[in-house]
Amino acid sequence: MLHWKGGSTMSTHALDSHVPRLLRIPKAAGQQLRWLGAGFTLGFLVPYVFADLLDTPRDLYYGIYAVAVVAFFTLWARASGEQVGDLITRRWPVALALGLVCAALLVVIVLRTEDATPRPEGLALVGAITWRGIVYGVADGLLLSAFPILAVFSAFKGTHFRARLTGKVVIGLAAVVASLAMTATYHLGYSDFRSEKVQNPLKGDVIWSAPTLLTLNPIGAPIAHAGLHVSAVVHSYETDLFLPPHH
User: Fold this and answer.
1) Exposed, middle or buried, 23 (CB in 10 Å: 0-12/13-18/19+)?
2) For the segment 111-134, what is each residue's pLDDT rounded down to a tens digit?
3) Residue 137 in contact with residue 226, Cβ under 8 Å?
């Protein structure tokens, strides 16, 4: 109860009823902010500890990273009441198409940015495409884009603000900022990206995040990101930009 001069009282519930509905902070927002904080921590510590400090072999590092990301995303989905199956089937034809289109754009960027370098052949190349291109690319897309975008939208789940066109635009912009922040945090875990070099993945984030941002389906960004890494493996296997960690 709130007490006012003159002995009158007003309950906190009554006071809350006078707050404009659109200005109220959703209860889910606090939970999603905590998950975003955990995601930023994970995104920085995995490359910093395993790549920078421990100098883990690259392929082993990718396995550790992929397991950590999938486990984290699964825990987040369960805690947030999101069904992974429902997320994956949401507008999936559009998400798939957009993912492939953005993957093609990222392939062009790789070809124009890096020179061709020697690469393995035969089964070694197939293994590299699968592990360094697809597995690592999917994990990257899941953590850097799918998770932060979906977490921001989940923070406003069931609210009138999200139901309005203006609200969707504002939430979408916030989701883009969250994805950019996650991309920057993750890459700063690598010593060579603690420089102007970090600008490159931030530019790419705008492209590989678009499929998930437009459909709220987590498969779009990983598909686009996998296209980036597969093309790097095939075209520029010794790249110093697209396949960290670099030693």
Assistant:
1) exposed
2) 999 999 999 999 999 999 999 999
3) yes
